[in-house]
Amino acid sequence: MNVTALVVAKAPVPGLAKTRLAATLGDAAAADIAAAALLDTLDAVAAAEFSARIIALTGDFAQASRREELQAAFASYTVVEQRGDGFAERLVHAHADAAGAPVFQIGMDTPQVTPALLDFSAAALSGGGSVLGMAEDGGWWGLGLTDSELARALLDVPMSTPDTGAKTRAALEALGAEIRLLPVLRDVDHAEDLQPVAEKCASGSRFRRAVQRYI
């Protein structure tokens, strides 16, 4: 399918990654879990039928947990640096950097995502219209846009709030986008998210093993 995968990621550096988890588990454990989630996500994206794969990365990768594993996983991706002030602006620039085909964006907080779900999402996007995958906490885990210009809708959306998903949909529709909703997933923000998400992961997933190690 002529769809580009865009993985938006933050280097899992202890003390900077998953700070809400770190408050419960400690800096090293939180960064290790974040790295495991990113690795599982990269594996799923690599196994799906995208025509191109891009990682928009921020943070000091040299200090990242599991950096050697991550570096090996990055080999099948084009890596670009996030740019802009604020998360929403960085997302807009990342979509512009990935433009040329419809773009499906995913973060690193839903390690339970499967190649089959990603293929479904890409097929829905390539069939016309945009797609949005809502998260249980009111945010969103996946966003597919047919035109990178639509990403500017994100500039007016408050991020990391209980109505981020609903406001993202409204902002996109205000620009004329037709939205198809994807299945709702639970993302990992807090310690109470770890076990429910791990149970949705494959038995051999890095995230599931990491959760079993720390809780």
Strands, helices and their partners?
Blueprint lengths: L3 E7 L8 H7 L1 H21 L4 E7 L8 H8 L3 E4 L5 H12 L4 E4 L8 H12 L3 E6 L4 E6 L18 H11 L4 E7 L5 H10 L5 H9 L1
Parallel strand pairs: 1-2, 1-4, 2-3, 5-7
Antiparallel strand pairs: 4-6, 5-6
Helix pairs in contact: 1-2, 2-3, 2-8, 7-8
Q: What would you say this structure looks like, in words?
A:
- This protein is α/β, with parallel strands linked by helices and 215 residues long.
- It has one domain (4-214): Spore Coat Polysaccharide Biosynthesis Protein SpsA, Chain A (Alpha-Beta Complex).
- It has helices at 19-25, 27-47, 67-74, 87-98, 115-126, 164-174, 191-200, 206-214; strands at residues 4-10, 52-58, 78-81, 103-106, 130-135, 140-145, 179-185.
- A seven-stranded mixed β-sheet has the order 3-2-1-4-6-5-7, sandwiched between helices.
- Helix 1 crosses helix 2 (27-47) and helix 2 packs parallel to helix 3 (67-74).
- The longest helix has 21 residues, at 27-47.
- The radius of gyration is 16 Å and the shape is globular.
- The mean pLDDT is 96.
- Show unreliable segments: none
Class computed from helices, strands and strand pairing: alpha/beta
Integer count of domains: 1
Helix percentage range? 40-55%
> Helix and strand succession?
EHHEHEHEHEEHEHH
Q: Which architecture would the CATH scheme give at its second level?
A: Alpha-Beta Complex
User: For the terminal residues, how far apart are their CA atoms?
Assistant: 39 Å
CATH class: Alpha Beta
Radius of gyration: 16 Å
Strand coverage percent: 15-25%
Q: Can you list the strand order of the major beta sheet?
A: 3-2-1-4-6-5-7
Q: Quick one: CATH superfamily?
A: Spore Coat Polysaccharide Biosynthesis Protein SpsA, Chain A
Overall mean pLDDT: 96
The CATH topology is Spore Coat Polysaccharide Biosynthesis Protein SpsA, Chain A
Largest sheet report: 7 strands, mixed
| Number of beta strands | 7
